[in-house]
Amino acid sequence: MQTSLRQRMSGLPAGFHLLMLSDVLSGLAMGAGYVSISWWVVSQGGAKDMAWFSALTALVMLVALPLTAPLGDRFPKNRVISCGIALAMLSGLTLATMAWFNFYRLEWVIASESVSMFAWAIVFPSMMSIAAELVPAGRLSDALSLQKSSQAVGNLIGPVIGGGLMAFTPAWLALGSYAALLAIAAIGALRIHIPARSREHIQAEGFFDQIRVGLRIRWRIPLERKWAFWGLVTMTAYMPMVLTLLPIKLHQLGLPAFWLGACEAAMSGGLLIGSLWLTHRLLQHCSRANARMLALWTLAAVFLVIAWTHHPMVMLAMFAIEGLLLSITMLIGQTHRTLAVPEAYRARVQAINILVAKLGGMLGPALAGILLHSWSLDAVYMFFAVFHLLSVIPMLLLPGVNRFLNLNHDEAKDWYLKQHPEAFEPIASADGKLKQPI
Q1: Which end of the chain has less neighbouring CB within 10 Å, N or C?
Q2: Measured between alpha carbons, how far apart are the two ends of the chain, in Å?
């Protein structure tokens, strides 16, 4: 693993090393924040509050993503990331202040976290596409693997810190630590150096025209349109099991907040190992398409076990395996889908991918909240596990997906532009002028 890691790090620019550091800090903050905020909501308001909290904050990001997506293409991505993280820090400070005064009102918590969701809607598209500006196409697979590993390191430590602080210290201290970590991450992101490129032709376009461009690209490419639809179905099943139902289940089992942090850390540990080692070893023995199929089926089986068991150690092991499998599915798909889009469109198109996940993050918890009124927690968990299992079949049968995934990196670069140039044609602005293609 060490030799492979050295080889992947070799030759990457200094700006990418700073990106990895920023990702570690951001992951650390997000991991600690998720555990702290979720446990505070569950312990203060119960399952009903958690379901509303998850659904409504996901709705905010769902609305914000298409509106903020052009920022990463119009302005330097390092500044966009830094400003977004700073805004999330203000939300964390607000929550910490509420906890300090022992003031819990669900509507105020949702309002504050909505600011954070708006901030992460600014950050995520640029964070997921900035690596393609820092490294050449042939190194993007290594870069994304290392970036996922950096995020996993932060997410591995963050939940443990958040869970430990929530278990043994006042809630305001845990939430205040979340805000402090975000402040450091914002400074780190600002120091990332990215190659200069002209943005005048992008900034000359109307802001809403650029939003339309990103949405139209996804719609006019058949593979991406179907991938997005079935990805939404999968995320609707997946999100409640890891965001909404997990803290409720652990709380009902009488376990302390540490266990929520431990499950998150186990998943991040699996993601780290998968990003650094397992995915690369697996691809030495089978095609990307076969590796993806194996990971999706095994992941579905893992969630069936999580839904069935009440043993915390079994749950911990399953979340570690989940992280391993997620690293395979994310790295195989994200590398090719990033390369296939021309550079000037990547932040907007990545925003659509995140939007799909967040829409699932809204619909899934909302459905979970409805079902919890009539069903037991175990029945609801098993429902979503079976739902997720059934969603695997259409994801594997997407027309053309195997051919696409088996392209080499040079072939995948700008693939969508070559195959579907009509998706990138200029569009008419509101005043009837034609905007020139980027």
Answers
A1: N
A2: 41
